[in-house]
Design goal:
15 helices, Epoxide hydrolase N-terminal domain-containing protein, nine-stranded mixed beta sheet, AB_hydrolase_fold, epoxide hydrolase activity, Rossmann fold, alpha/beta, 9 strands, Epoxide_hydro_N, 423 residues
Length: 423
């Protein structure tokens, strides 16, 4: 197999090679807890096939996770799901760890996946995930790049870190009040330590979009950002700005989400400790909480293996209670309007995004130089893990979500913004 693990010659700090491996005892403990976890009783809210019209979700899931889905997923998790197979797929990509001390003096051991190029003019490109995602979001894009390019002709150095507190990255210490700005500083230092202090690009959605905005606004080395979630408030002149029919339809769904689907967000923000402790008590509870999001926030239902891989990663690395710090802080309505990003930026609009910002609104907050609109795809537009076993039921559809489309958008944006690009 081609070797994409050669560290660039200009790296200031040599990362340590890493392989994902969960101790067998921890795996067995998860299964034991899963066996002992009861499924709640049948009630109208978790059994009715038609719970009323909703813009945001399937009418049979208006009130959240269905009991029949959870029952089938639990059985699949116990009897068919193979974590070791998923682990092998993860380990087919080069991975590393690097200790980084932020400007606040806090050290984080950062895990990241990478495809390094042998080209001297390779463009450094970082992808940042969100919640309830992880670096797993980028496995499909990494697979596409590996299929298209050898290490000798790969146009990019591609890096997908685990944000502080997620997966195999360590979290902030228990005596530190952490936030996205501090995490972004660590992400910037990772790129500098890898030798990219003269310039790099960043791409992100969800919390990753917030990281990109911080990097683009604060650090000269970050030359441009590309977002697939543009989470900003409506501009003051929003009513006078144009939008097309697809944007208007998506905006109605986004408004519905703020009424029907954001209870989890308020819980994360206001009772961070409670939800962290509650979901650390049972893997089945974690599946109900996170699985609902993967089902509701995608254009088509992902396979059960995709959902279980993410939930297993969260459980086996104790991610959930360590990772929801970005939700804390003042309510969105009380936060100052984001500053305009003058650097050239790219934006991919997916119609089922939770925060579907029209192009004209995005242009109020950033210098948009590439824009692509997609009538398929939702919140997890970047894609996810490969399907390795059957779907949980006949209502499950194709794998998440539109990695080919997003990668095409990203490559168009790179050509536009990277000076001297020879793509």
């Amino acid at each position: 197999m081609a070797d994409y693990s050669k560290i660039p010659a200009g790296a200031k700090v040599q990362p340590k090679a890493f392989r994902a491996h969960i101790d067998e005892q921890k795996l067995q403990h998860m299964k034991d807890l899963l066996k002992l976890s009861p499924i709640g009783p049948a009630v109208w809210e978790n059994t009715s096939q038609d719970q009323g019209s909703t813009l945001m979700s399937n009418p049979s899931r208006k009130y959240g996770m269905r009991r029949d889905y959870l029952e089938a997923a639990k059985d699949h998790w116990l009897n068919k799901f193979d974590w070791r197979k998923q682990e092998d797929h993860i380990n087919s990509f080069p991975q590393f760890t690097m200790p980084i001390t932020g400007d606040d003096g806090v050290r984080v051991d950062v895990h990241f996946m990478a495809l390094f190029s042998e080209r001297k003019d390779a463009i450094p490109l970082a992808f940042y995930h969100g919640w309830p995602g992880s670096f797993l979001e980028f496995l499909k894009i990494f697979s596409l790049l590996r299929e298209r390019y050898s290490p000798k002709d790969l146009p990019y150095h591609v890096i997908a870190p685990s944000l502080p507190g997620y997966a195999f990255s360590s979290g902030p210490p228990v005596d530190v009040d952490y936030n996205v700005e501090k995490a972004s500083n660590v992400m910037h230092k990772l790129m500098v330590n890898l030798g990219f202090e003269s310039g790099y690009l960043c791409q992100g959605g969800d919390i990753g979009s917030g990281v990109c905005r911080v990097l683009a606004s604060k650090y000269d080395a970050c030359k441009s950002m590309h977002l697939n979630m543009f989470f900003v408030p409506p501009p003051e002149n929003a009513s006078s700005l144009p939008m097309d029919a697809l944007e208007a339809k998506a905006l109605k769904r986004g408004e519905a989400f703020m009424y029907e689907g954001n209870a989890y967000m308020r819980e994360h923000a206001t009772r961070t400790a409670t939800i962290g402790l509650a979901l650390s008590a049972s893997p089945l509870a974690l599946l109900a909480w996170i699985g609902e999001k993967f089902l509701e926030w995608t254009d088509e239902d992902p396979s059960v293996d995709e959902i279980l891989t993410s939930v297993s990663l969260y459980w086996l690395t104790d991610t959930f209670p360590r990772c929801i710090y970005p939700y804390r802080g003042p309510p969105q309505k009380d936060r100052p309007r984001p500053e305009h990003i003058s650097k050239p930026s790219g934006y991919s609009f997916f119609h089922m995004e939770l925060a579907p910002t029209p192009k004209s609104w995005a242009e109020t907050y950033a210098n948009i130089v590439t824009y692509n609109q997609h009538s398929k795809g939702g919140h997890f537009a970047v894609g996810h893990t490969e399907r390795v076993s059957p779907k949980v039921d006949a209502n499950s559809h194709q794998a998440m979500e539109q990695p080919e489309a997003l990668l095409s958008d990203v490559e168009e944006w790179v050509k536009k913004v990277w000076k001297g690009s020879k793509l």
